[in-house]
Structures are given as C-alpha cells and as structure tokens.
Amino acid sequence: MTSMSPAPNTQSARAIRPAAGASLVAFTALLLRDLTVLKKNLGIFTARTLIQPFLLVFVFLYVFPQIGQGIGGGGGLSGESSFATVLVAGVLALSIMFQGIQAVALPLANEFGYTKEIEDRVLAPLPVALVAVGKVVAGAIQGLIAATIVFPIGAIIHARGVHPNLSVHWAVLLTLLPLTSIMTSSLGLLLGTRISPRNIGIMFGFIVLPITFLGGTYYPWATLSAIKIGGLPWLQVLVCLNPLIYVTEGFRAALTTAPHMELYVIYPVLIALCALFLWLGIRGFYRRVLG
Amino acid sequence: MTREWEAMRIGTGGEQTQVDGVIRCEELTKRYRDGDILAVDRLDLMVHRGEILGLLGPNGAGKSTTVGMLTTLVVPTSGKASVAGVDVIAHPALVKQVIGVVAQTNNLDRALTVWENLYYHGRFFGMSAGESREAADRLLVEFRLSERAKSEIVSISGGMAKRLQVARALLHRPSVLFLDEPTAGLDPQSRIALWEILRNLHSQGQTILITTHYMEEAASLCDRLAIMDHGRILAIGTAESLKEAIGADRIVTVSAVGDLDALARLLQDRVEGATKTQRVNNTIQLHIKGATGVLPKVVAIAERGGFDITDLSVIEPTIETVFITLTGEELRD
Predict the structure, then answer these.
(1) Which of A12, A22, A289 sits opposite B126 (nearest CB)?
(2) 3-class DSSP assignment, residue A15
(3) B111 and B164 assigned to the same domain
(4) Are residues B25 and B94 in the same domain?
(5) Residue A9 with chain B: CB contacts under 8 Å
(6) In which residue ranges of chain B is pLDDT below 50?
(7) Is the dihedral of CA B10, B12, B15, B17 positive or negative?
(8) How confident is the model at residue A9 (pLDDT cuts 50, 70, 90)?
(9) Residue B204 lies in a domain
(10) pLDDT number for residue B138
(11) How confident is the model at residue A113, as a pLDDT?
C-alpha cells in the first residue's frame, strides 16, 4: 500500500460569512457553472435550437409555396406572405418554449435521478430556493440566446415572392423576450421537478406536443373564433389554458401589425404564469432534494 | 430556542463562539410521513472538535437520515441540532458553509471535468477564481488525480471518484467532514487508501463523522464509535469501552448437532463464568468472563448432555460481536 498523504487541512476551517453575501456569491457561481456547461455544448445547443424552426420555415415558407400547396388561406403569394407573418412570431415563441423545457427540465430530470448530481449545488451555501431560481435564470438566458439565433431564420428563408410583413415594436419585443424566457424556463423547472426521468417520453407526447400544436404557432388566436359548437368558440376558449398562446400572440404584437390578443391581457397573464410556475417549481424542487 | 443553544454569532472577523461539541444533537427526530416511519428517534449526540466519530448500524438504522439532517438535506421533524455552533434548523444556508459532505453515491457533476468539479465547488463557496484554481490544483496533486484533471467523470474509476468527492468536500475547508458509507463498493486497495486519507485528516485535527459497515476498520480509525439501531444510539464510546461493556473477555462459538436452544441453556447454566449465550447462524455464542480453561469444560458438559460438538472456537470480543449483541441477528432488507 502506497500511502497517500493529503494535507488539505493545514489551514484551519474558514470563517462563516454573512448569509446574504455568501448566497449572492454562490448564486453567481451556480450561473457561471451553467454557462460553462452551455459553452462546452454550444455546437449541440445551436443545432438543437435551429433544427425545429428551420424545418418549420423550410417546409411551410419554402417548399409549400413552390409545390403550390396552399396554406395561407388560399390567397396565392399574398396569402403565403400573410402566413409567413403569422409563422415568424410562432417560430420565435416555439423556440423559447422548447429552450425552457430542454435547458431546464431535461437536465434536472437527470440530475435528480440515481446519481443525485444536483446535491453538490444544493449543498452550496445559499437557500435551496435560490438553487432552483438559478436553474430558471440559466434557462432563461438560453431562451434569449435561442431567440437571437432563431429570429433571422424566419426573415431569411422563404420562397421568392413570399415575405413576412414585419413591423417591430421594440418596447414590446424587449420586454416580452425576458418575460417569456423566464415563464417558459419556470415551466421547465415545474416539469423537471414533477416528472421522473423515465417518464420524459410521456412528457413530450402528452405535454409538449399539445402545447406546440395548440399554442397559436400556425394561426392567430383570433381566427379560432370560427370554430364553434352551438355558437361557442370552444377551441378559442380552450387554448387559453395553453401558456404558449400568450407567448405567440405576444410576439405577434411585437413583430407585426396583424391582429393579436390584447397586450393588457398578455402581460398580466404572463406575469401570473411566471409566478405560478416558479412557485410550484420551487416547491417541487424542495420536495425532490430535501427529505 | 435558548440563547446558549443558538450560540451563533457572526462578528466582523467571522469568529464564532463555541458551545461544547462541534456537532450537537438534542432529541433530534425524523418521522417520514409516508408509512409513519420513525427513522431517527430523539437522538442525543455530541462530537468534539478534532474527533472522528464512527456511526455503525444495520441498514435502516437511521445513520444516513442522521447525517442527512446534520447536512441540511433532511428536514428534522423535531429536536435541535447544531454544527460548529450554527443551528441546523434555523440557518441551513449558513451550516452549509461549515460542512463538507461525501455522499454514498457518486454525485459528482457529470457535465464537468475532474478539475472543474473542484474549481466550481470553490467558486460556490466564495473563493476567487485564483484561490479556487490553486486549491483545485493542490488537491488533485494530494489525492493523486492530477493526471486525470481533464477527464470526464464517467471515465474515472470508482476509487478515483470517491477520492475526488472527498477532495471536493474538503476544498472549502469545512469545520466538519461528513462521510456516508464512503467505502461501500470500493475495491480493497481503494478502501485502504481512503482509510489512510481519513487517518491523515484526523491527524491534522479535522473533525469527521463517518457512517460505515466496516467495523474493525472503523474501530481502529475512530476515537469513538456509536452503534445505532431503530433510530436510537444503543451504545457510544471508544472501541475498548464498548467491548468491555458487553461484559465478557472471551467468546466461545460452539457448533453442534441437536437441539441448539437446549444446549445453549445447558451451557449457560453449567459453564463457569458464562454471562450470556445467544444463537448466531446455527452456532451458539457463549460469553465468558473471568474464567480460564473453558474449552475442555464446554466439551465435557456438552457430551455429558448428549450433544455432539462439531466445531469450537474462542475469540476475544470484537466490535462486530458488540454490534451483533446489541442489534441482533435478523436480516434488515
């Protein structure tokens, strides 16, 4: 047996630092750790951010117009252009939504798993709730980066003669981007803490897919009023339960002059969803890490 | 909560006043809601500065729950606990500054390299980039992990992973190091290396609380041992005092054909100095105190009673004997 001779404790134990300062430092370091991991995986991050919007835009705005598959309400090139206008906001919203789930829920599900990798971060000298908030902030940063990467796609890839009619309202755009990023990564926290790793597939099938298809990505919310049973626009009412609808409608307001849900509805609902998901997510986080 | 108990003060220099004991538990209790399981039952415990305490007990005895409560990962149901003078229940975020924790499982950060696991841990604990880099480099050398600094966690061996966990737990210079079954699943070489590391830390004055199933190794390493079962500490003291407390200086193990319970009763009655007999794995253990030349007498008594002895041995009590005497034979699954 060769003897190992660590001398790690020649210095005495460190003094206790005040809680608030120590927490702030630890919180910053947790973000630093998450950003380091992001930087390592930047290639795969970019690829996974681009693939879905690229396919959507490519098929709907490039392939469909060329093969004459009408999708813009049958209005020819002007119809295609108005569909392109609808889709740009939808694609942006969808990218942010996916980022929230992929950047927060998926890693969390793994870290809560058998290895309990999250433990070292939970043992960092800050309140456990802040570890969860750190996850959300790191996820939101990834959402913002994703939005920056995705936005040009909708503006660039399209068939000749098809043009999204964009008219950027900067104040709305610059407030909605962080708000929606935090809302979707809070949803990621909620899903990641409530769903066990082996049920991730189920989450995609039964939560992510319905959110995507019924979230106003491909159609403005107002147009759903045409779908009625006995005078009730049931689908328009039902999709109000979908958090994504407020994101897509919000970006429609931020990027186009097309009709959209009122901003005085969108902002309060997004803020309320942030608070709700964050609260439930932190509670779930506590339940997963503390016995 | 009394002022004495809370005895935590953070002055400008960060000095803490210290009540007796770096770890203190008073009636510490954990009841899990599901199934009404009382995992830890009114536990009183005191660990002194520089002491290394071994917590022994069968699976489910409450060892990990105790460590969990002291390391803030398990929320106590009732009772009090403090580490380095900081109240665990009132100030969990502060307690985390003064503890280092080595979990039973490999909970290293798979998204980071070996070196980064140490570096970011230092940053979590408020070290500057330079300080943390220096500490990570130094610990990798001391724990013989330098060559694997850039390795991914999934590529290193179990022994290396455990050493890295210990290095990480020490990086921020904690007042108390907690290790929960650190040698479980390690090969003998890695296990011996880990005991060696703990021995060195102990000689440098590090306070350590360790749970383990390796009783004789714990007995040689630890200042005191606590034997725990059903959420309570059954006995606590030095290895020597625990062995003395079972009240025997020889333990005779008898294998025989026939009714072992009847033989046990016979030996208990007739062998001089017999303080206790118990059935262990189809053998009888006979505790003897203050008598010599016992083996021939045991054989004679058994034969006269019509029993055929197939094997016979005598040992001095070990910590395992103490453990089995206190916690019994039943399997705990």
Answers:
(1) A22
(2) coil
(3) yes
(4) yes
(5) 170, 173, 201, 204-206
(6) 1-19
(7) negative
(8) very low
(9) yes
(10) 95
(11) 75
